[in-house]
Amino acid sequence: YKRSIVICIDFFSLNRSLTGEGNRETLKILQEIIPLHIIEVPSGTQVYDWTVPKEWKIANAWIKNSAGEKIIDFQDSNLHVVGYSIPVHTTLSFDTLKKKLHYLEQLPEAIPYRTSYYHEDWGFCLSYDRFTSLFEEGEAYEVCIESELFDGSLSIGELLIPGKKKKEYLISSYICHPSMANDNLSGVITAAFLAKYLLEHQDTLNYSYRIVFVPETIGAIAYCAQNETAMKQIDEGFVLTTCGGPGKFGYKQSWQKNNSINAMTEAVFREHTLDYETYPFEIRGSDERQYSTQGFRIKR
Fold this sequence. Notes:
300 residues; 9 helices
C-alpha cells in the first residue's frame, strides 16, 4: 500500500497525454514493478480508419496581466493548458481571451481537464474562482504557449503472463490523463500491482493474462490493429479505471449482459461482502468501446 502511494506521487505531476515523454516516463516507472515491454507506434501509422497523431511536447505556458504578473502558469499545474495546444504568443483583450478559457462554475475550485487532440487549437483551464478574481473587463493579457507537434510516436506498455492454458484474459488501463489521481492513476496502479501479483503466483495460474497500458481510445485502437490475431482470440477482460474514488465499488457490465464475466465479478463482490453498484454497458466510457467493437467483441 505504501509503495503504491509513493508511485502515485511520482506519477501525478508527469505531463501525460496521447503521446510524449510523460507517457514514456510513466511506463518506465511501471517497469520498476513489472517487466513491461514498451512499444512505440510512429506518428502517421494507419490503424483501421484512425491515424496515430503527431507527438506533442510542451515546455511552458502562462498568462500575464497588464502589470506583467503571471496569473496562470503551466508550471503550477499541467491541467492549466488544454492538451495538445498549438503554440501561441500574443496579447489579447479580455473579450477575445475569455473564449479560450475553460472553467466549471458548478465546481468553482476545480481546474477542468480539456484536450484538443484532433483539431488544432489552444486554450487554458482554470478554476472559476480564479477566473472571477483575476480577470477584468477592458484589460489586456499576454498569453504564451511554448509547444510543438512533430512526427514522433505513441507509447504502449505490454506484459504477457502465460498460464497453464492458452486462453487469455485482458487487463487494460489508460495512461494519458495528467494530474488526476482517480481518473486514472488509480486504474494504472491497480493494473500494475495486479500484474505483479499474477507474476508472483504464475505457477498456479490456469489462464494467461495480457496486461496493456495505453493512451485512451487511439492507444487501444492501435494496439488492436497491431495485435489483431491475438486480440480476436480474447473473450473476456477488464478496463481498470477510477478505482480510487469515494463510495461503493462499481463495475460496468459486459455488452453481453448474461456473460460469465458479469457473474464472476458480482460473485467476488459478494464473497468479500462488498457493497457495489452495477452500470449497464454503453458506448460512452473508456476503452471498452474499442475492445468490444464488432471486430473484437471482448466481453468486459
